[in-house]
Structures are given as C-alpha cells and as structure tokens.
Amino acid sequence: MSEQLDTKDEIHTYPLLALKNVVVFPETPKSLFFNRPQSLEAIKEAVTRKRPVLVVTMKSPDRDVKSRDDLHQMGVIGRIAKVQRLPNGAVQALLEPSQRASVLAVDLNGPFFTAKARPVSSRESADLELPQLVQALKHEVFNHLDMEKKHQQIQWNEELDRKDVPAGRFADAVAPMLNASLDELQDILETLDTRERVEKVYTLLYKEIQQRKFEKDLKARIEEQVGKRQKEYFLNEQMRAIQEEMGESPENAEFDAIAKAIEEAEMPEAVRETAEKELAKLRRIGLQSHEATPVRNYLDWLTSVPWSKATEDNLSVHHTEEILNEDHYGLDKPKERIIEYLAVSQAVGALKGPIICLSGPPGVGKTSFAKSIARSLGREFARISLGGVRDEAEIRGHRRTYIGAMPGKIIQTMKKVKTVNPVLLLDEIDKISNYFGGGPTAALLEVLDPEQNHTFMDHYLEVEYDLSKVLFICTANDLGTVPLPLRDRMEIIELSGYTELEKVHIANRYLIPKQMKENGLVDDQLQIPGKLLLEVIRGYTREAGVRGLDRTISKLCRKAVTDRLKSGKEKKIRLTRRKVQNYLGIAPFSHQKLEQENMPGMVTGLAWTSVGGETLSIEVQAMKGTGKLSLTGKLGDVMKESAQAALSYVRANANDLGIYGKSFKNMDIHIHVPAGGTPKDGPSAGIALAGGLVSALTGIPIHWNVGLTGEITLRGNVLPIGGLKEKLMAALRANLDKVLIPVQNEKDLAEVPAEIRDRLQIVTVKHVSEVFPVLLEHLPIPVKEPEGENSERQGAFVPDRIESGSSQPSGMD
User: Fold this and answer.
1) Is 368 a catalytic residue?
2) Tens digits of per-residue pLDDT, 718-776?
3) 85 burial level (CB within 10 Å; 0-12, 13-18, 19+)
4) Is 727 annotated in the active site?
5) What is the fold, at CATH topology level, of the domain defined by 504-584?
6) Which residues form the Lon proteolytic domain (predicted)?
7) Of 40, 250, 524, 752, which shows the fewest CB atoms inside 10 Å?
8) How crowded is the C-beta side of 690, counted as CA atoms within 13 Å?
C-alpha cells in the first residue's frame, strides 16, 4: 500500500537551503555547514522569525542553483535547533527535520532562496510481511554495522529498537548510516511506499555487508601473504647470519658447486680458463646482481655440455650386419656401405669417416635406418629436424648480448645426449630454407665438414667445440634443392623405392607383427593371405615407401579388433577379399589395363619425382591452324624446350616420317599432359614427345602397353636419364609390358631388382629412329615433297607462337 499526500497539509513558503553532498531524512537530526550568502541569510531569517526551513539536495554539486531544475523535487521540512558561527565565517547548524515535502516552486531572487512546498506524510503499509522485513533489517543493522562509528554522525534513538516502531521511520533512520551514493539516498527519500522503502534500504545494506566481507577477506589474504614473505625473509636473514657466523654462506656454497662442476666436466684447457674467468666474474658481482643471471646460465651450459664423456663403440662387422638385417629388409647398397665404413674403422681403430646422406622418397626407412646404425654401434641417437629452419642462429646459436640467448640446435642436442660421440640425424636437410649468401645452409657447411667441425664455434658458447667424433647422418627426399657446396661435403647413399615383392616381405616381417601388437592382437588372431596382401598393396597404396601400407595394415587390425569385440567370440579372423573391401572401402587405385585400344597421339612417358616414379600420359593432337604450338599441363621450361626439340626433329625429318613439310604451316599442334594441377619438368620425356608427334601427324596408333623415357637431341640422339629403377617400378605398377630406355642406361639395370627385369621387356635405344618400330603399330611410309617446295631440312621449325598454361613447377625428371 503506497503512502499518499496528506490533503490536510497546506502549501507554504519556506526559506530554502540547497545542500551539495548530503541527503537529509525526516526525524533524523543532522549537523550541516553553510557558507553561501543566500544560505546564511535563510538561516538568519529562520532563527530570527522562528520559521521552518526547506532543505533540498542539489542535482549537481559542482553547479550553482540557477533554476528549479537544479534541485531535486523532494526535500525535508525542519527547524534550526542550534547555530554556531565558525572563525572562517561559515555557520554550523543543527537541523531537526520533521517530514518530507514536495517542492512546487522556487524563488531565487532576494537575499535568500525561498520555495513553495507541500508537506508529504505517509501511512504505514498494511502488508503482513512488513514486520518480518523490518525485523530482518534490524538484525542486519545491529550485527554488521559499526554503530559506534555511525554515532558520530547521527544520534541513534533507542525508541527505534521497539517492535512497534513504524517501518518507514526505521528505514529513514538507517538510510543515512549506509555507504550509499547521493542518487541512491535521494531515491529512498522520494520513495513514499513504506514496504518499497524498507526493501531498498535492505538491498543497499546487503550490498554494503558483502562489500565489507570482500574487503575483509582481501585484507586477510594480503596480510597473510605479506606475513609469509616477511617470515621467509627474516628466516633467510637469520640463516644467512648463522652461516656467516659459522664461516659458510649460500653464495659460497653455490660458487663451490659451480667450481666442482667445472672440475668434473673435464674441459679442454682453453674452455676451462674461460669457465674459471666467468666464475671469478660471478664471485665479484655476486648472485644478487642483475648481471649474475646471464653469467650463471652461461656457466650452466659450459658445465652441462659433454666435453670428454664418450660411449664405447661396437665395431663388430658381424654384429652390425645382424642388426641392420634384423631391422630392415632389402637396402643392400646402404647396408654394404655402412659395413665397409665399420670395417675400415675396425682396421684403423677409430671411427672417423665421411658425412652420410640417405636420399630417397618418403617412407623407405631413412630415419629408422639411422636409428639402426646407432643401435648397432651402441651409441646415443638424437634427431634434429631441419625442415623449415630459417635462421643461422638456430644452428650456431645467439650471441650472449641478446636477451634470452641460447645455443643452437647442435649444442642443445649434444647436451641432451650427454656424450661426445652420438649419432646425430639431420632430418629433411633438403627442406631447409636457403638464403643467398648465408642462412642456416651456410652454417651447416662447417658442421658437416670433417676437416673443420673439430673446431666448431657456437655463437653462445664462444669456445671451440669438437664435433669430429659425432657420426652425422642426413636425410633428403630431393637432392636437387640441396646447395652444391653442402652436397659436396656428404657421401650420398640412395635408398630407392621398394618393389611389390619387397613390400610383401616388409609387411610380413615388420609391419603386420608391429600393428598386431599395437592393436592387441596375438597368436595369429588376424591372418592375411599372401595373395590378398599383394592385392592390398596394389589397390590401396601407390607409393615408393611403405608408410601408407603401414597405415592401411593398422586400419585392418583396428577393424578386426572391433569385429572380435562386437561378436564376443575369441576366434581367429582370416581376411578375405570381401572383408578387406568392407574394412577399407573401395580400392582407390586400379591396376586394370583400362586403355586396351591403340590410339594415335596417346603415349605413356615415365617420370621421376621426389616421392618415387610416376607414369605420364602425354596427349598430342594435330588440327587445322596456322602453325601454332600449344603446351599445357603445367609444364616447366625444360620440358617445354624438350617438346620444341622433339618437334624440330620431326619437322626436319618430316618426309622420312611420312609427313609433308607444308602441312606444318596449315595446322596447329597441341601437347597436353593430364593432371594439370601437378607441376612437371625435366628432359626425359623427349622421345615420348617425338613418338606422340609422329603418331598424331601420321595417324598411326601407338601401342598402349609401351612406356618410354629418354632425352632427345635435335639430331635424334637419345641421352641417358636418371631414376631408372623408380621409373621401371612405375611402369610395373601401371601394368606396362614393354619399356624403352636409353642405351647408356643399360649399365644401371644391374641395380634394378630381378623381379622388375623379369616382368618387363626392356628395350634399349640409341637413336629416336629405333623408337618408332617398337612404339607404333607400323612404320610410316616416307613421302617426297612436290617439286618447288622447300625442304624442311633447311632448318629446324620454330613455331610463330607458343601458348602454355604453365607456371614455374617443381623439379621432375
């Protein structure tokens, strides 16, 4: 129930006192200070003529009263009970407010302000819950407010403690005691509903209580922390005083520990002198100095890096051969080179030799081969990934003048292995960023030079460190991106891709047992027949290594374990073709002979990439035109030039190849290599391009089961190519029957596995004229130019325009 205006109260004119930073409540005496002339005159008028005054709070304490809008619309009527003039001219007045009043009009003219106001009275609410609410407010007031402090501001009336005290009266008495803002207090003053007024006071009181609790808890935590720190400080000072009294100190103990570490590190004499010099500097400046931390860190690195501790090498050739054969299938040439290396080391009595670089496509076992070498020698092994390294400081370290400086990857790894003769694998050396004239590649020149690395200088250590006892093994996928000076310091050992038969042996010996163990399959609980494993290799993997095959076998094992758990039967699972298809889905690679029809201008070339060999389907199309040559398929500059050389040979020998020379001026030739998103480059598609041109221009179909590779010259000579084994493996994967290779590559067939040589008919050619009888269904019939026509042999044909949709590709031979 709301409080209402008392209609019996009349409107009167009162002297007006405008208050800046205080809100006055009825029946709550308040001592106020005034110094404005208008306020002093209003007090004089009220005291002299015994008139009541109207006290109203200003809306903005920083602004003078100019109009009624500068004052709140609700004030309090009261009487001046006591006045005391202060030495500075101000007046202290004790106001005894009686009741609320609504301001109706304000007169700011004259010696003092006046206002017309109507007194406002209220009746208590008849709400049944109001007494309980007032009692709760009393409880909070008496339990949580500091009454003694509040007594200085307001005289607490003991009559308020009675149960029959009006609720509004009690709320008006508590409100001035709260730590609330002027707006909040004015809102309470203007609230005429008794229950609503009590609830607002209770809300402000609760907020203040919570704030006090928070401040109290915060103060307690801070005092506890400060007390704990002070206690630790005093205890440390007492301990320091006791140690000094006994001739000991923490600093001396730490200095002695560093000196002992220097003694036990067995450093070279020059390094020892540097360490002792830094220790003397540390003693001089003290551990509390801000300069002590860099010196302390530097001494930690000097004493942590191994200087003389080494593991004993196992140079037994038979032991190493046994370990390598146990861990790896095939890889005869790399194993042979390592055995020779150890045999010489055993004869000499010291293990010192060239830097080894294992080069080959991903997944052939380069990293695991390096681990096997370390295991066979009994040495510590560590791997340093160089992929994406951009800064020389990552190899040589940072200067100690920089904040946060630390040694490079080499010294960090030496600290980790704790021996001077580990096997360090520099992985992905072909992926390192190469900057002209410097960068991390230049920093590796000293590391990988046996004649220089015994005096390797890290920028952080600034002392010579001997790396000559370290066996460095590098890995790379593509040596073409390794700078020549760096490549010259390494002995390259090629790890070529595996044949299908080798993959079957690797899967049976290594991959299947490993995956069965990792997936909880034991005692032949999963059986993969040999023929089915070969189908998995052919249908679900197409790679030079076995990484994808390992993932495929892992998936088969997971599916088998899931089936066994779902069925609840502890039975062996024998894979069938249908189960493999259910487990792995449709085979992504098809080895069926799709093109069984001989077609003109459609020839299969063989290419080498950093991930193994690939087949290239080259399409040549002749059409009416103006003598334009178009090359598409994202071809590189070398492959474009190879196409021009092939075309020049064909045009120069056009009549012998059954082509009229004048026809070149009236037709366009388009050469396209599908998979246009893949960059292609290299000269080894020369004879394939020549064969495709002759087929397209004569209309003679090409045998679809013949692949060929070889570089062509303008006179038709066939030059040797690289990556023969990988290319032949790609031809075998593509189910080709016959492959043409340069005669100069015949010597490389000795390194090709017998499995490949037996399944492919390999034909060597010396001149491109030897290609056409094997590649084409039949030889073209030579023609003779009509009289008066110029012979095409007078010069090689160069197209008027060459159109190509290519961009700069990556290397492909």
Assistant:
1) no
2) 999 888 888 888 888 788 889 999 999 998 888 888 888 888 999 999 999 999 999 99
3) exposed
4) yes
5) Helicase, Ruva Protein; domain 3 (1.10.8)
6) 597-778
7) 524
8) 34
